[in-house]
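Question thread 4412

I'm putting together a teaching handout and wanted feedback from people who do this every day. The idea is simple: show students a protein as raw sequence, then show them the structure tokens that encode its fold, then repeat with a second protein so they can compare. Below is the first pair exactly as I plan to print it.
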Amino acid sequence: MTCVSQLLSAAVSRLKTAGSDEPEANAEWLLAYALGVSRTWVLANGFENVPAEKQIQFESFLVRKERGEPLSHIVGFQPFCGLDIRVTPDVLTPRPETEDLVEQVSSCFDKKGRYAFLDMCTGSGCIALALARNFPNAQVLAVDKSEVALKVAQENAREHRLTERVHFLQSDLWENVMGTFDLIISNPPYIPTADLATLTREVQHEPRLALDGGADGFEITRPLCEAADGYLNPGGLLALELCKGQPWPLARGLMEIGWQAEVKKDIFNIERFVFARKI
């Protein structure tokens, strides 16, 4: 038999050759998934022998990872704010930056408050579900243009028993949205179309609809912001995640039309978020 450390060493070498992001972490997660154990167990039990059938399963996962498939697509989920979020090729894989957005937004509200929140471009539903978990008295509306993405989000809501407080709506931005909200939060498609081809292989496996922000990256964000004040309660917060270089132009644009806006950094010290309130 081959032991855990031998399998990991060979797998890391293969993933490095394939140009995989974070080859060590990916190898550890994939082996843990094949064995049905935690990543911590894998790291602590390097001399344990791995049964042949588990090696075969691990090999199948490695082949997919070498082709550039995201880890979340292989294992079928991504941890997010303490929740295991089901992920398919129809939704964007939740990322640490977005977890940080949820945490920063959550600090702006009373945990016991009775709020109405809106998550625009919800995808997997990760933001909506994390907010519902953080705010037990809140109602959350999760909106997406994609019917298949909403199905994944609804499955996640059922899995985490949040269907009574998280509601789903298929809508092209504001097209079908009614009501007003204390928070409008969004991680919209923001990658300029010309930049899509430069993304890593893993990211290029993500749905284009969730990535493509049009020629300047603001094709979705612009109309989202232009109408947002009509859907916010007095003093309500608009919170957006964008890519490097976009937050300040957007914040300045909002200030020019009467918003109070600020730019916030993410956990990697990158200016990524815009928080705005209508004056």
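The second pair follows. I'd like the answer to focus on this one:
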Amino acid sequence: MQGILYEEPTVWLFLLVSVVMGGWLAWMAGRAIAKTWRPAWQLVVYMLVLGLFVRFIHFALFEATLLTLHYYIVDVIVLMAFGFAGWRYNLARQMTTQYRWLYERTGPFSWKARESTGKPA
């Protein structure tokens, strides 16, 4: 996997920087976008910028290549996965707590419309 997903001497550095640190930041960015009811396309823009910061951390701390398209794309894909998961999780939570009379949660990332009780109003 070295050379495909990461260029550091060990996978643990990739997991620490890209997955743990970058993933947490991406999750929090997705959470912030969901909490302010912004559209998902803004998350893409934020993850592209966050990918630059993750590449810089790899470069500054572990002597990786700073400007490499291949590893930048790998980092951005990891960040987008965490970012969209955080966005969808928090959006589902908001929809089911703020509009609990309309929606019910069906899983950590989804919701559905509540079924009517059948009583006339």
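Top answer:
Good format. For the second protein you could add a caption like this: Residues 11-113 form one domain. The CA atoms of residues 43 and 51 lie 12 Å apart.
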